[in-house]
Amino acid sequence: MGLRIVILGAGVCGLAAAYRLLENDPKLDVTVLESEDRPGGLARSLTVDGQVTDLGPHRIFTELPDVQAFLEDLAGGELETVQRSSRMWLRGGWIEYPPKPAEIARHLGIGTVARSGLSYFGHKAARLAGAGSSGAESFESLMTEAFGPELYRVLVAPYARKVWKLPPSELHADIARIRVSAGGLGQMIRKLFIPEKGGRLTAVKQFYYIAGGVERLVDKLRAGVERRGGRIVTGRQARSLRRRQDRTWQVNATGPRGGSAIYTADIMVSTVPVGDLLGMLLPLQPDPSIERMRGELRFIENFLVCFVVNRPQVTDAQWLYFPEKDTLFNRGYEPKNFHQSMGEKNTGMIVMEVTCHPGSKIWHATDRQLIRRCLHGLESTGVLREEEVRSTLVHRIPNTYPLYDLGYRERLEHIWRYLREFPTLVSSGRQGLFLHNNMDHSIHMGFRAAERILESPSAPAPPFYTEVSRFQSFRIVD
Ligand SMILES: Cc1cc2nc3c(=O)[nH]c(=O)nc-3n(C[C@H](O)[C@H](O)[C@H](O)COP(=O)(O)OP(=O)(O)OC[C@H]3O[C@@H](n4cnc5c(N)ncnc54)[C@H](O)[C@@H]3O)c2cc1C
């Protein structure tokens, strides 16, 4: 029998790791333990009254060549190219996204644009003259630097506050670097002053989607793992770890109705939230500072508020953005506009996303309250009328977005140092590395975990963690 490898979590990262291990060495003994009743993690789909939605629409797009080739092969011709179509609600009207600068100017009003331009160039001139600090560590300082104080105040700060529920001066600049630098709101604003050739802003104009939703892709990944001899055990939550004298691992995992089972491993890959993993390791190797930092790793949660309506289509857009504070939701999307297979012919569905901190007022809101507040916002922006709504559902996604506050990088550095002390355990994936990322990044990180195990089975973790800063530099290309 080959090495025993236990992988915690059957999201795309854990499945990709299992796939790559078995593809290279079919003799390996690979088990994936998943706490939910089916694989997929964040890349799962949900059915609401006959309509299907991903847990947040999962378009397929990558700049990583290894993942591109893998996905095309895995999907076997089922990836379909979709043209992007998004809109933004701004100052009482809709603008196309990505927008034309003239369209934004019309919506913001020429006074605001002129003031913003003056403030932007004034700020740049002051910088050249050496005024102020150039250290751009917070979201606020980076964005003020990029767009000027006025536009930052009018548009950027309210949206950041709305999504992250914290003052932008308390958010790390990486939030902007990961997302906005690749497109999104920030690029849109910058291009107000420096339009691109053709007068239109670049962003991803087309992407792949898979008929039936992202879980179809996960099904193919799961089937690939099982075909190569891997075991995927669902409904098993890893609770604690032990190390035996011979350095092997023992995972204690419980099922939904209690009862536990022990899994033995020579090597482990964990894709569960890194705080949960630390909770399992600290009893083996106590460290008070890691214990404290573990409590300081925070996530933002996302609620999906779904409205099924009695008409074939709600809007003609895939994504709708709501940067202003008068609506509860930040963003909405219409699954059928990603692919017709997502719903019945005469019925439509729109899904609104609401972010919140665990324990906050919104987090405690009842489903009924969330539905009412979202409905109010949808009516006031003219998206739908209450009498058209056939059914509703609220789905809560825990641990949706890692929250990058000002101290998060130093905290993670300490944590990686601590984890290096367990050379046969690799923590990877979005939750395992506390990364705000996309599926392609998680698949790549699963591959890299597998490749490190194949290269140096006696101690794959230290070389794996040398790649973390490269993973942190991945961008979500909007
Ligand atoms: C709203 C939203 C929209 C998104 N849109 C896109 C998009 O358009 N395109 C794109 O490419 N990506 C998108 N993403 C990102 C994508 O979903 C993630 O990057 C990817 O799915 C993360 O995979 P992962 O395997 O690293 O983590 P996860 O999917 O979080 O997997 C971790 C797994 O571990 C399991 N687990 C946790 N604790 C335990 C335990 N103790 N024992 C056993 N199992 C456990 C969990 O149940 C889960 O299945 C989006 C994400 C969100 C939230």
How would you characterize the overall build of this protein?
By secondary structure, the protein is of the alpha/beta class. Among the domains are: about 180 residues, FAD/NAD(P)-binding domain (3-Layer(bba) Sandwich), CATH 3.50.50.60; about 100 residues, no CATH class. The chain is about 40% helix and about 25% strand. It contains 18 helices and 19 strands. The strands form five sheets. It has a seven-stranded mixed sheet, sandwiched between helices. The chain has a five-stranded parallel sheet with strand order 9-2-1-13-19. A three-stranded antiparallel sheet has the order 10-11-12. Helix 1 runs parallel beside helix 9, helix 1 packs parallel to helix 16 and helix 3 crosses helix 4. It is globular, with a radius of gyration of 23 Å. It starts with a strand and ends in a 6-residue tail after the last helix. About 5% of the residues have low confidence. Flavin-adenine dinucleotide binds next to helix 1, strand 10, helix 15 and helix 16.
Summarize the structure.
The chain is of the alpha/beta class.
* CATH-derived architecture of the domain at 4-41 and 214-294 and 407-472: 3-Layer(bba) Sandwich
CATH superfamily of the domain at 4-41 and 214-294 and 407-472: FAD/NAD(P)-binding domain
Globally, the shape reads globular
The distinct bound ligands, ions and cofactors come out as:
flavin-adenine dinucleotide
Q: Estimate the helix proportion, in percent.
A: 25-40%
Main sheet attributes: strand count, strand direction, barrel closure: 7 strands, mixed
Order of strands, widest sheet: 7-6-15-16-17-14-18
Briefly note the CATH topology name of the domain at 4-41 and 214-294 and 407-472: FAD/NAD(P)-binding domain
Number of strands: 19
How far apart are the termini? Answer: 45 Å
Beta-strand residue percentage: 15-25%
Tally of helical runs: 18
Mean pLDDT: 90
Which CATH C-level class of the domain at 4-41 and 214-294 and 407-472 is it?
Answer: Alpha Beta
What structural class should be given to the helix and strand makeup?
A: alpha/beta
Low-confidence stretches are: 181-185, 195-202
Radius of gyration over alpha carbons? Answer: 23 Å
